Amino acid sequence: MKVLVTGGAGYIGSHTVLALLQQDHQVVVFDNLCNASEVPLARIEAMTGKHIEFFRGDIRDVAALDAVFGAHQFDAVIHFAALKAVGESTQKPLAYYQTNVHGSVCLLEAMQRHQVTDFIFSSSATVYGELAIVPYLESMPLGSPSSPYGATKVMVERIMADYAAANPEFRGVSLRYFNPIGAHESGNLGEDPKGIPNNLLPYLAQVAVGRRTHLSVFGGDYPTQDGTCLRDYLHVMDLAEGHTAALNWLADHPQQRGIEAFNLGTGQGVSVLDIIAAFEQASGVPVPYEIAPRRAGDLAAFWANADKASTMLGWQAKRNLTQMMHDTWRWQSQNPSGYSEE
Ligand code: NAD
Ligand code: UDP
Q1: Range(s) of the domain holding residue 41
Q2: Ligand 2 neighbourhood includes 330 CB (under 6 angstroms)
Q3: Burial 212-223 (b: 16+ CB within 10 A, else e)
Q4: 101, 243: one domain
Q5: Which of 82, 99, 137, 265 is the most exposed place for a label (fewest CB within 10 A)?
């Protein structure tokens, strides 16, 4: 199949591009590089010996979208492009609605103009909101996330549902990611956030290579076994393979119409202190940390029920916490400054 991947130069997008090429799909990447570079794409080309056509453009730019849709007949679109920093979204909400919601509408409109019906969207566990009971199930209603970022994911899921109701040809899949971490096992691809990392694993890995002095553990008094938050961490290559599974599922079910949501997680809650211990064991490097105040908006504990993806897509997370930590460390130690050296 020929697939347009928006945001394909980013963290999850680049790993998914690799997984798509490994399954012999053709890939065109569309990315404005506001949070990425072309280096991972060059590395994927070197790893696979396959060409990736790259369009530098913004999903809100109608002419740029028409250029890429005019140049290719796509079987499907996988839509990663978005702004994703939860904290920043409270400071710059309009930028988040502009890129994540308006940008997604522009993309769906371009698909409509060019008769492309199959759409896979990067959603998030945050759509279940603050009041949902764990483990999260797809049959639960969309909630009220505390951040503008989370609200954009709920809105795009609503837009997909409304568009599907009005356009019987549309075939949408929302993949609700839990906490993707890790890196490709080669050490060639990984997560390379600009500035100070917001997420746990990039921050921890930068402490381990000496770029930062210590990790602040946000909150030690949550009602969990060790007082720190529980999350459902999954390997980014498992997540990438969730996208190829969804793509193949759509292709294998030509009668499928409307939208379908799937949780992509392992089904297990792991604490921040568990993560630190697992990382230290895998890397052999001690990670200095201190317990700091809670971070605003953090939930104590959530994890997935991922049975639906297993039953319908035949997808299950295969890589364990040890592998996630080994791969994080391989990536960070081989690329201490991320992609920026090239
Ligand atoms: P990322 O920032 O590494 O990737 C996003 C990519 O989109 C970047 O390459 C960026 O340059 C590009 N982009 C941003 N705005 C754009 C625009 N207007 N036009 C074109 N390209 C644009 O982030 P990621 O972690 O790979 O996340 C990918 C998707 O998954 C996002 O939609 C994110 O909200 C979602 N998601 C991520 C996580 C996570 O923990 N990383 C969890 C749940 C959902
Ligand atoms: N966390 C932390 N220190 C950090 C970054 C994150 O203790 O520097 C914690 C955070 O409070 C949460 C977990 O690690 O309990 C995962 O946070 P992350 O931002 O990676 O993902 P989230 O679940 O918020 O999307």
Answers
A1: 2-181+233-265
A2: no
A3: beebebbbbebe
A4: yes
A5: 137
CATH number of the CATH domain containing 80: 3.40.50.720
Residue 133 tokens read as 């009971």
Catalytic residue, from 97, 128, 149, 233: name it: 149
- For a pocket test of ligand 2, which of 199, 215, 270, 303 has the largest count of ligand atoms closer than 8 A to its C-beta? 199
Q: pTM for the full model?
A: 0.98
pLDDT digits 0-9 by tens, 177-213:
999 999 999 999 999 998 899 999 999 999 999 999 9
At which residue do the structure tokens 């997540």 appear?
239
Q: Round to whole Å and give the CA distance between 70 and 42.
A: 24
Core vs surface per residue 79-92: b (16+ CB within 10 A) or e: bbbbbbbbebbeee
Told to judge if 222 belongs to the known catalytic residues of this protein, a careful annotator would answer: no
- Closest atom of ligand 2 to 124 CA is 25
Q: Which amino acid is at 146?
A: S
Q: Indicate whether residue 198 lines ligand 2 (CB < 6 A).
A: yes
Q: What is the distance between the alpha carbons of residues 328 and 305, in angstroms, rounded to a whole number?
A: 25
Tokens of 205: 């890995």
CA of 123, closest atom in ligand 1? 44
- Distances in Å between the Cα of 18 and the Cα atoms of 50, 92, 146 are 10, 32, 33
Residue with the smallest CA separation from ligand 2 atom 16 is: 200
As a whole number of angstroms, the distance between CA 88 and CA 75 comes to: 34
Which residue among 126, 218, 302 is best mutated to probe the pocket of ligand 2, counting the most ligand atoms within 8 A of its Cβ? Answer: 218
Whether ligand 1 lies within 6 angstroms of the CB of 59 is answered as yes
Q: What is the pLDDT of residue 247?
A: 98
- Read off the pLDDT of each residue in 247-267 and give the average, rounded to a whole number: 98
Ligand 2 atom closest to Cα of residue 230: 15
Average pLDDT, the chain: 97
Same domain for 257 and 295? no
For ligand 1, is residue 80 a contact (CB within 6 Å)?
Answer: yes
Query: How many degrees, rounded to 5, is the angle at CA 83 between CA 246 and CA 175?
Result: 15
Q: Is residue 106 located within the same domain as residue 211? A: no
CB atoms within 10 A of CB 52: 23
Task: Return the SS3 of 177.
Answer: strand
